[in-house]
Specification:
Number of helices: 5
Structural class: mainly beta
CATH class of the largest domain: Mainly Beta
Strand order of the largest sheet: 1-2-5-14-7-8-9-10
Number of domains: 2
Order of helices and strands: HHEEEEEHEEEEEEEEEEEEEEHEEEHEEE
Length: about 350
């Protein structure tokens, strides 16, 4: 009975918090605006029960802090009415860096993009960040189609960690929205089965920085118009000759070289790698792929299935003295992957068909 009572009390607190948040967001933004601060050339208006503060941490470097002492969200927003290039761009993007105090402080830092401004005028269009109530401490994403009210929430597998992190949200030419954390691709609205659920509006505007449950510190932001920033290559671990203790390759070899692309948390090599794009050899640009195993195999005994491919030794182009072999390619999402492992290239002596006689 006691446990049941505690459960009801916890649920009631959650309901009260939800109602408070909804009421807060329904209040016209101007009514809660306490002050305005200029940070990195942009005027940020604060709609909060706390405060907004710009701190110069070193010469020329300023951080934006949202002071919050309650459970009601604290937000700083920037209405992009005057940023016509950003609104009319075919592939605009927003990038925000923040300081995560995890695991010391249970906090939530979020980047919201709304289709209207001030913030209370309409619901979110898209948001990404951390959730203080998320038990597995991963980044989450939420998307809403303003025309249909379709809402999708995605709990990613990307774990939180302390330090400064960068969130990026961008719209692609086909209207989908993509999400990145520290240049690592997380999710795209193309993954929503119902195509009509992610039809993006004509513009991408009205930026909101939000903190919940504690103060939030933002270290940088960038708005981009015209094109999305190039995504960085994803470093993958590979194992050349995974079933051998020595990565020995004979210079004259005509056979095939097995190479495993190792899976890890948040990356399943067999299902995510585009096998048709993989190249391997002395520089990584050699088109030497022969075939691959359709079923993954756990080669390093970590409980995850790895992708095993075989490459033609001659086409890999190794020379005596080479110390490393390189692999390049793409994922099915279009991300670039790169990996390398040590090799030992051996010049094997040829057979002699004659003997010296006395």
């Amino acid at each position: 009975m006691l446990a049941k009572g505690i459960f009801k009390e916890v649920e009631m607190k959650k309901i009260i918090l939800l109602i408070a948040t909804v009421v807060f967001l329904m209040i016209p933004g101007k009514a809660l605006s306490q002050q305005t601060e200029t940070w990195k050339g942009v005027e940020w208006e604060c709609a909060t029960t706390g405060g907004i503060k710009v701190t110069e941490v070193s010469e020329g470097i300023e951080y934006l802090s949202l002071e919050n002492g309650s459970t009601i969200p604290v937000m700083a927003y920037y209405c992009t009415d005057g940023f016509t290039d950003f609104r009319s761009a075919s592939t605009p993007w927003v990038e925000v860096s923040f300081e995560d105090s995890y695991p010391d402080v249970k906090s939530s830092v979020q980047l919201w993009i709304r289709d209207e401004c001030p913030p209370a005028a309409s619901y979110f269009m898209t948001l990404i960040g951390t959730d203080a109530e998320n038990e597995d401490d991963t980044y989450f994403i939420q998307w809403r189609n303003p025309s249909t009210n379709t809402i999708v929430k995605v709990n990613t597998t990307k774990k939180r960690s302390g330090g400064v992190h960068t969130i990026r949200v961008g719209k692609t030419e086909n209207g989908a929205v993509e999400y990145y954390i520290d240049d690592e691709w997380l999710w795209s609205t193309e993954d929503i089965p119902d195509k009509s659920a992610y039809e993006a509006p004509e513009y991408f505007g009205n930026i909101i920085l939000m903190g919940r449950f504690s103060s939030a510190t933002f270290t940088d932001y960038t708005f981009g118009s015209g094109s999305s920033p190039p995504s960085s290559s994803i470093a993958v671990d590979i194992d050349i000759r995974p079933f051998s203790r020595e990565n020995k390759i004979y210079h004259w070899e005509w056979g095939v070289i097995p190479v495993a692309i190792l899976s890890k948390a948040g990356f399943d090599a067999p299902s995510e790698v585009d096998k048709d794009t993989i190249t391997f050899g002395r520089t990584g640009d050699e088109h030497s792929k022969a075939f691959f195993l359709r079923r993954g195999k756990d080669v390093n005994q970590d409980g995850l299935r790895d992708l095993i491919l075989f490459f033609r030794a001659k086409r890999a182009g190794f020379q005596v003295g080479d110390k490393e072999g390189y692999l390049k390619g793409n994922t099915l999402k279009g991300e670039t992957i790169e990996g390398y492992d040590s090799v030992s290239i051996v010049e094997k002596k040829r057979w002699r068909f004659w003997r010296s006689h006395k």
